[in-house]
Amino acid sequence: MFLTRVIRLLMQPGRIILAVMKRLPFGSYETRCALDLYPRPHYAYGVQQAAELARRLRVGRISVVEFGVAGGAGLVEMSRQAALATKATGVQIDVYGFDTGQGLPKPTDFRDLPYIWREGDFVMDVAALQRKLPDAHLILGNLSDTATQFLDGEQPAPIGFVSIDVDFYSSTAAALAIFAGDHKYFLPRVFCYLDDTVGDDDQIIHNEYVGELAAIREFNEASRTAKLSAINGLRHKRVVPAPWNDNIFALHRFDHPDYGTYVGREDTQTQLPL
Ligand SMILES: C[S@@+](CC[C@H](N)C(=O)[O-])C[C@H]1O[C@@H](n2cnc3c(N)ncnc32)[C@H](O)[C@@H]1O
């Protein structure tokens, strides 16, 4: 496994250069985001894009959400990115993490891929995580209860970035149910990271009939005015294409009052030379 990883890296020299650059303390927040130099660059991308969209829409406070926290390393990085994005854009960012706290629940049926995931995997040390992240909001319980109650109960600032990493079809469907909430709880386009759409090739063969991809397909089939869809061509916009590029989606809320609000350049009239 280690050797395979090393050979894979050697075959992509750009990745080696990035790995070295990640260790060098240079560049502004914007530069480090643009070059994908932060650990878990999908969080840096999602949080920065959400904060920038909020700034352009003149929304002063947003929320970012992680469904599936496990030990909490991802939530720690998301919180760090939120602080960096606030400093850069002035947009305040609240961080929410959802988990059972007790690891994976019981799989519901074959769509939860029980051939690879087991009940009780990914238990959390709740007290340790709360000590580490006193400002993050940790919401414990099964998503089938917590996700639907969250919006009207918590009244969060508009959600701009969501990471969904809950492995199961049933848990992803429960997380996606939050998107049925009122537009006031969302930016018109919500950046999303969907972890379980690409897996290790020795174990998981993700497809649209099981797991996270099945939940996404059903979500899109059920809604005419909200669609969760990959960001076309994202990998070509990164300095070095990486697997996480294929996990990034955006939720488009076509009938959100701000969906059509102009967020392009304000300083010049767009003109193309003859
Ligand atoms: C792979 S782990 C998350 C890893 C984490 N995102 C990270 O990057 O470190 C999946 C997590 O999803 C949680 N989970 C799965 N189904 C859930 C459900 N229905 N309700 C709440 N949490 C759930 C599990 O408890 C587990 O901690």
A few lines on this structure:
The chain has ten helices and seven strands. By secondary structure, the chain is α/β, with parallel strands linked by helices. It has a seven-stranded mixed beta sheet, with helices on both faces.
CATH topology group: Rossmann fold
Helix content: 25-40%
CA gyration radius, whole angstroms: 19 Å
> What is the domain total for the residues?
1
The CATH architecture classification is 3-Layer(aba) Sandwich
DSSP E strands, number = 7
Q: Biggest sheet: strands side by side, in what order? A: 3-2-1-4-5-7-6
Largest sheet, in brief, is: 7 strands, mixed
Poorly predicted regions are: none
What is the average of the pLDDT values?
Answer: 94
User: Strand-and-helix sequence, N→C?
Assistant: HHHHEHEHEHEHEHEHE
> Structural class per helix/strand content?
alpha/beta
Q: Indicate the proportion of strand residues.
A: 15-25%
Write down the CATH class. Answer: Alpha Beta
Small molecules held by this entry: S-adenosylmethionine
- Total of DSSP H or I helical runs spanning 4+ residues: 10
**For this structure, what is the CATH homologous superfamily?**
Vaccinia Virus protein VP39
The quaternary structure here is single chain
- Report the principal-axis shape: globular
Cα-to-Cα separation, first versus last residue: 55 Å
